[in-house]
Amino acid sequence: MSGQDRFRLAGVMGSPILHSRSPRLHNHWLAQYGLAGVYVPLEITPAGLEAALRALPALGFAGCNLTLPHKEAAMAAMDSLDPAARRIGAINCVIVRPDGSLHGTNNDGFGYIASLREQFPEWRADAGPAVVLGAGGGARAVCAALAEAGAREIRLINRSAERAELLAAAYGPPLRAHPWSEREEALADAAMLVNTTSLGMHGQPSLEIGLERLPKAAIVSDIIYIPRETALLAQARARGNRTINGLGMLIHQARPAFEAWFGILPAVTPELRRMIADSIA
Description:
- The structure is a single chain.
- By secondary structure, this protein is α/β, with parallel strands linked by helices.
- The protein has helices spanning about 20-30, 50-60, 85-90, 110-120, 135-150, 160-170, 230-240, 245-260, 270-280; strands at about 10-15, 35-45, 60-65, 80, 95, 100-105, 130-135, 155, 175-180, 190-195, 220, 240-245.
- The protein has two domains: about 10-105 and about 255-280, Rossmann fold, CATH 3.40.50; about 110-245, NAD(P)-binding Rossmann-like Domain (Rossmann fold, 3-Layer(aba) Sandwich).
- α4 packs across α8.
- It starts with 7 loop residues before the first strand and ends with a helix.
C-alpha cells in the first residue's frame, strides 16, 4: 500500500454513462499500484452538472472525468483552467485542489496523438489534409492536437454548419469549415479522416458517408470505442485503409488524469489493453 492519508474518490460524469470503460481502466490501476480509492460512473444530466461538480470537494473526490454531453458546459463551473483547455474550449478532466477549488484540464488531445503514434509510428500530421467530422468537445481537442502536431490543413465538417464555422473562426488556420453536404468531396486528397461525432456509437444512428474519394493511403480514425469497429472503420478496412478506433485515446488520456488525482503516472500494458478490449463487443 502507498502512504496515502485518505481514501480517494474519482469518477466520470456523463449521460448516458454505463457504457464507459473508464471505471475498469482506473480501478485496474488503483489495484495495480495498491492505492486506496475507487473510480465510479456518475450519471449526471445537463441540468444537474454544475451542482454535481460543486459537490465534488465535500464528497471527498480528487476529481472526475467528463464525457458527452458535458465537456463544454463544465467549463463555466471551473475556478481555473489550464491554457490547453482554455484554447480548446472544452475540458475532460476536473482536479479538486486542496482548497476545494475546481481546476479544468483537457487530456483528450494528448490521448489522441499518443494513440496514433503508438499504432502508426510513422504518422506525420503534415502528410496531407485532415478531415474532421464533428464540432463538439472531442472535435475541439482533436483539431487542436493535430494543429499543434503540425497539420497544415484541417477540414472541419459538422451537421450544424454554424457550430463548425464558429469553431473554425475561433481557431483560425489551419481549420476551415465545410458544409456537411460536402463531406464526401472533402475526402478527395485527404491523408486522414477522423470521426468525433457520436454517429456509429452503440445505440446511435450510423454515420452516412461514402469513402470512394478517400485515398487508400489515408488513415481512418474514429474516437468511438463501443463498438470496437464502427461501420465507418469496417468500410474503411474493407477498401484497404488503415484504421484506428478510440480505445487507445481513452487509455492514454486517462494517464495524466490518474497522475493528477492519485500521484502516479500509470503504465499502459498489454494486459490492460486486452482487459478493456475484451469487455467490448
